[in-house]
Amino acid sequence: MILCLFSLICLTGYAQLTSSHLPIVIINPERAITDDIRTPASMKIIYKGPGQINYLSDAEDSACLDYNGQIDIELRGSSSQTTPKKQYGFPTRLNDKGSKNNVRLLGMPKENDWILNGMTFDPALMRDYLCYNLSRQIGEYASRTVYCEVIISGEYKGLYLLQEKIKPDDNRVDIVKLEPAVTTYPDLTGGYITKADKTTGDDPVAWTLYSWTNTPVNYIHEWPEPYYVNQYQNSYIRSVFLDLTSKAQDKNYSLTDGVPSIIDIPSFIDYMIISELSSNADAYMFSTFFHKDRNGKLRAGPVWDCDLTFGNDLYFWGFDRSKTDIWQFSNKDNDGSRFWYDLYDNPLFRCYLAKRWNELTRPGQPLHIASLESLIDQTASLIGTAIDRDRQKWGATNSYQNEIDEIKSFLHSRITWITNQLGSSDQCNNVDVPPLVITKIMYHPDSTELFPESDEQEFVEIFNNSSDVIDLTGVYFRGTGFIYQCRDNAIINPYSTLTIAANSSVFKDRYGSLPNDEFTRHLSNKCQTLLLADGFGNIIDSVRYCDSIPWPDADGNGYYLKLNDPGTDNSMAENWMASAERIVTGHQEINSPLVELYPNPVADILHIHSQFRVESISINDIQGRIIVNLDIDSDQFEVDMKSFHSGTYIIRLISRNFTESRKIIKQ
């Protein structure tokens, strides 16, 4: 019996799709696909591997299937729903049709939320692909994408991008998944994914900001999902955007309370570069994502929805906005929130923007015109003959080669214009950075009966390789997945160390001394890049360690990575050793003027004054054991210590604006 799936009649006249050099996605929904209720469906992905031809007749051969299982599928998008070629979203499900199923699709990391992007408004069918790939090439996460051809209910639907949905995940937007029940600090500080966008469906607007021309810009919660965000979470993340708006408008670039203390400047610059290189008509106003990890800075991105770019727009609706000679953040159309304009309007920020642009457009770099043209040609070659089938299906009549040539021509003019506008970056070139060196990394401790939680024993050591006292204000670790920012006015003495740990109490119990501070999240047990930077993102030190050769074996065996000599290049694996030596932290107090504690030593009452409202405190003994936890919610308060035994204690104060640990002596 011949299945209808393979009948030429069932393919509605598109008999030419009997095979493809691209993966073939076959979806059979139980009912019509809508945008309000997900429809159960089965899905097969025929893919034999790179360089192989995939045949429809392979659908019953399990050896040829990259996926064979259940999904729930729905229409997605806003403007694209008005067009014949639809966009789709779907989670992969277990065979019970209810439980989500984390799977690898076409080589992408395991997850359960996926998108089929039809590139509806892009006649070249590559603009999203180009922007996402360029963003990853310059070091920022963007959705991974794989070209495929799609058949739904026996009908050929054309060329699509199977891609990752934006969501919190170690391999996607690498932030903590903030749970709906969280209402207190420090957990309240992350993670969030927020977007400036138009509303689709019934997603509510969380708050509204305004552009420099006073146009409203709506913000929507992406994570936590809109109907699960509580009032404390909404208030907190909104306050971060309001703070950015105020500080950017005031041109406050102080490391302690200005723009660098609020945002990860390199991520905002990279977002602007991809958006402006492509002249994205929707950027800043719509489909503009931000994310913030727990205790981390606000970051821009990932880039998204890049079809109205490189000179393309919704011409049939009378739009023509993607130009070579305008800034999309200040062309009086879809400018987005005012802080984008104010950031650019600051000479120091603009200098760093120019510096990054000039770096990325050098020969051999991703945004040099030769590199861009090569990527375009590679993408056209990858699409291959699938473009002819898609264009036949949807009635395209213009020259495809002309579409490619127009993108290249656009880029030539665009790069020249931006380069001339940005000019020199002399003001921020060759910035002096402190001689700080990452010298120890405990990334995968062993688990023992006494210390069963391996991750809680992690630590990183930073060494001051100079004879000067170094002010650590603004110093932080860039990127995602590992979060730490030095406290304001903290110092590190000459030839001394700063040790930061996952858990101070566990570190004290395991290694015999207190660390200087704690970091947030955990180190990767595989490979990870640690980027130590100043407040403007200038790299101080960079190490990419791995759990494999040539790196020494410090993988879950009780050893940590130790740099043999702080004067050597710590980016080279051969300069490290696996060590189990006793850790000596040289613990030094990191006091901040944000908090006053007196008297210290204390006999009875400890008085505490803070510049900011303190949410809670905890007091630990010197062994790290918790003696007391108190909710405070005040900037001036007292702690009765009459009943405490004489000795040394660590008091930890938690505020929205800071976390402070101090040593106190009870007489």
Keywords:
667 residues, alpha+beta, Immunoglobulin-like, 4 domains, 7-stranded mixed beta barrel, 10 helices, globular, disordered N terminus
Secondary-structure blueprint:
Layout: E1 19-20, E2 24-29, E3 39-46, E4 54-55, E5 65-76, E6 87-93, E7 113-117, H1 127-137, E8 145-152, E9 155-164, E10 192-196, E11 207-210, E12 216-223, H2 231-249, H3 259-262, H4 265-277, E13 288-292, E14 298-300, H5 338-345, H6 347-360, H7 369-383, H8 386-394, H9 400-422, E15 436-442, E16 459-464, E17 470-471, E18 476-478, E19 482-483, E20 491-492, E21 497-501, H10 504-511, E22 517-518, E23 520-521, E24 527-533, E25 539-546, E26 560-563, E27 576-579, E28 595-598, E29 605-621, E30 626-640, E31 647-655, E32 659-666
Parallel strand pairs: 2-8, 21-22
Antiparallel strand pairs: 1-4, 2-3, 3-5, 5-6, 6-7, 7-9, 8-9, 10-12, 10-13, 11-12, 13-14, 15-16, 15-26, 16-21, 17-20, 18-24, 19-23, 24-25, 26-27, 28-29, 29-30, 29-31, 31-32
Your description of this structure?
There is one protein chain. The protein has 667 residues and is of the alpha+beta class. It has four domains: 161 residues, no CATH class; 206 residues, no CATH class; 144 residues, Immunoglobulin-like, CATH 2.60.40.1260; 72 residues, Immunoglobulin-like (Sandwich). The chain has ten helices and 32 strands. A hairpin with a 5-residue loop joins β11 and β12. α4 packs across α6. The longest helix is centred in the middle third of the chain and has 23 residues. The termini are far apart.
